[in-house]
Specification:
This protein has three helices and five strands; from the N terminus they run ββαβααββ. β4 and β5 form a beta hairpin. It is elongated and about 50 Å long.
Amino acid sequence: MFSVTVSDSIMIAHSLKGEVFGPAQRLHGATYVVEVQLRRAALDRDNIVADIGRARTLLAEVLAPLAYRNLDDLPEFQGVVTTTEFLALEIFKRYRDGVLAGRLSGDTATALAEVEVTLLETPNAWASYRGPVRAD
């Protein structure tokens, strides 16, 4: 399996409701390094997994609506505990939708097997979500 990874960063604010989160129940900020790894079984006719420039552009566009926002204020997250794990899944879904819409060009949408999204909170703590591009 071949892979290529692109990354960006995002700053958000949120609060995590629930006793398990201790002081993180209060409003606080987080800066994440976001990595997206694209995987496919064979390289395309240009010997690439995907165009890195388009992959980076798509990631920036996926992150833009979340950047510098208090996630607690966004309608789509009302009543949701926006943990790092949850955000990895949410970014995965948004990125996958862009892939399926043809944003990476060529046969990428049909040839990619998996996308993995990793959010690094610190150099010592991160969370990931990995899933198929298509739900065959």
